Protein 1
Amino acid sequence: MRCVHKFTELEADVGVRTEIPENEIRRQRDIMARIAEMNAAGRERLALVDTFGCQQNEADSERIRGMLREMGYGFTEREAEADVIVLNTCAVREHAEKRVLGNVGALTHTKRAKPDQIIVLCGCMVQQPVMAEKIRRSYRIVDLVFGPQALWRFPELLERVLTERTRVFAVEEEDGSIAEGLPAVRQKGVKAWLSAMYGCNNYCSYCIVPYVRGRERSRRPEVIVEEARALVASGYRDITLLGQNVNSYGKDLSEDVDFPRLLRMVNGIPGEFVLRFMTSHPKDAGEELFRAMAECEKVENHLHLPFQSGSDAILKKMNRRYTKADYLALVELARRYIPDLVVTSDIIVGFPGETEADFLETMDVIERVRFDALFTFIYSKRPGTPAAEMDDPDSREVKQARFDRLIARQNAISGEIHAGYVGKRVRALVDGVSDRESGLLTARTSGGRLIHLKGGEQRIGEFAPVEITGCNTWALYGEICE
């Protein structure tokens, strides 16, 4: 893995955008056709794609399923039936890696019963050289390994496994590229993920993402708008624009289009749908973003704005490039533009060297912002990142105790905020089934708050007025107002 300890801010902000030529995409499509012809003989071939990690991994899996379909594979949820099993992995936390390796170990039984079964590991976890080598040595049942940057080459890599009957590893270090024109199979339903950009230039000291997903590169705005238009035409009603830091969108493009401008472009697509985005970085979010959110009627009033720590000392060690005061001022500005804004965030507890005083600064941010919800994590050491070599004197027990205090306070705040919804009527998008036996559906408010309500499944995909009748810490309960 490359040395990461002496990066500079300039190095983190520089990158070269590369787009895969059309002739290379056509070559992959030709390979898909060849494999489909091979699969046409005999019984139907089946594939299983299992996804770990973030929404970007979900979006990547949609491309993987699209390519598999073009190669003649149907889909199954049963490992024993699958001719190809793809595990799309995450490297953000150690727990996710252990889950993946546990699942791989369990596949030994299906591989023994079905020796021609092909097992594929892809995604962020395997882009780490240490992990790729561990798989090479210790998990011999894995036939194909490729990182996020090689996803567009999946057909040619699979063809090598099929025709040469050899193990293939494609985890070379590279900054990444843009590959357009790949097929996708999206999950049926209301929600769709739409990648606006890939990679990250921020190099937060705890984070492995820039080293496994490459540098920031933006998709062309006209391609994003056309894909969004197609999603709306296909019946998707909840579209989320994805990027590790969406506020950096467009910096590598020749066009004069930044993220607020992109929001306005997608918002202008005719049709009834809502538009969300994630994730924002506080150092890049600002007034133009909040103005676009306020003025675009389809952009939902939800801002996911990770702050990670309330301590300026810890933020500096994290290389976050903002202060506690900066963050609080940013939330205040956003709420001036959008008074009913729902704010959610990420927090890391137990970063190396965090003291009780540092932790109390984080608790102070929670009290002052009053987040609707938080995604909270105890620090997970990622080999190859600067934080992995920092002194970390506190025990797991100390970190767990602080974590529990934080969760207890945030749960109380979330409960208080949710109680304020009771008796109110909100516009919500009915988006799925909560419990078929009890006839409960799920819906989302404009701010993304989960509602459980009764109704027939034909209501899924509808926008409906909902009266909120109850709540708990994590969700609301309501009734559709006819």
Protein 2
Amino acid sequence: MTDFRMDDAGLFLQRQLEYIRPQVFETAYADIKYPTILPVTSEAGPGAQQFTYRVMDSTGSFAFIADNADDLPRSDVSQIEKSIYFRSIGGSFGYTVQELRAAQMANVALEARRGAAVRRAYEEKVEDIAMFGDTSTNLTGFFNNPTVDVVTADKWFDTSTITTAEMLELLNYGSTAIVNASQMKEQPDTLLLPWVDYQRVTSTRNSDSSDLTVLEYFLRTNPYIRNVEPILQLDNSKSTSRLSTRRMVFYKRDPEKLQLHIPQPLELFPPQQRNLQFIVPAHARVGGVAIYYPKSVVYVQKSA
């Protein structure tokens, strides 16, 4: 006979989880990029099934008119209504009865690495959805969004004959394209670069007589871009075939322009007994990226 009861094990695990949870949720991962490159919102709430938004555009002008004019120029607003549907994602971690017995009898805390592993798996899944969406559930990502214009460059940073002036022209092209196409209504402030190209522009001097790199000179002279981030997955060889070639992303990092919807961030449920182990379910809901003003974003990519 033993004085160890299964309900005691569950109670012990529940108390331990009170200590494990803060460690799980306070951990930050430097290589997880979506929180720094996208505005994240949970405004829809965990019970929402979908989120409907309007893609807006306005047209119109003023003109000189006669006192009795009846042909006044007309201003109007056009809009397209779109919906994104939220999907659940989940995982779990657990401990065997023997592990709980040993920890309880020795009066030691359960190791928290399994909870951290679930948090890591959640962050990696959300990162993948944020960047590339998910075709099986019709979730849209940020790096391959069908509403965004794509421009193909005739030269790239790894072209053997490219000059620093041409590198600067390539870096400036995306922001200029957005500003010109929108009649200055859209002004991007962020540039995302493939990691290998980021290395090139941060290690190449702008000229033989300058100590500034190409990227430093670009940031000093471009009137719009204030943030440049290296992104590994913008290299097609690192995108698991979601991109056909390397690309840059120019955009305004503003929740009025685009948002990543996570109506229910990661949550851990009470442990559940399954045979000789206790399982801690983990759950979240995601909706992908909604781009409210597609003309505020542009992709500039390398020719295939």
Protein 3
Amino acid sequence: MPDFTYADLAKMIDHSLLQPTMTDDDLERGCRLAREYDVASVCIKPYAVRRAVELLAGSTVVVGTTIGFPHGGHVSEIKTAESRRAMADGAKELDMVVNIGKVLTGDWKYVADDVRAVVEAAHRDGAIVKVIFENCFLNDAQKEHLCKICGEVGADFVKTSTGYGDSGATDDDLRLMRRCSPPRVQVKAAGGVRTFDRLVAVRALGVTRVGATATKAILDECKAKLKG
């Protein structure tokens, strides 16, 4: 017998509603699907946060959104303003992108201050922060340093990628992020988790959240396999 239930896997999923071509109708359908399958959250475009909160009222699905998406190049003041607006609209989870160029430059003070600003703003209002690295552009030393910074500034999650880079969540990266992050910092995999088997595999590596667009397919397969 597996060591998980349907609810365990469903509550790992942040249903991703971020594709650039998604219409308002697409976003609303996505929220309804998230509610039907009782996932952890929706991660929705910032402008749609308020509507998502309305659609998910009374459910256990929380609303999250992106900050500094997708390249992290916004100045820190804009990232914190974006965070405050998202929380005012009802967002409880913020997936922020590090300044990728500053990571590659090695300006670690800038990177730490940037992440800290969003974390402090979020925590003041009871929201959590998942820090997106975009690992496909980084070497292992840079990933390790980011894990250290995220632990020091109090981030809640480290996250592999936006889902729009050159690659998504690899096993090697997930092992590195789990190993190099403090135990209280959780790991989110994003990009390439499209099947039940892959979800179970990343769970075994210590992942507790996954960004997914294939939510329905994954969880339909989960239901079928658990019944069998």
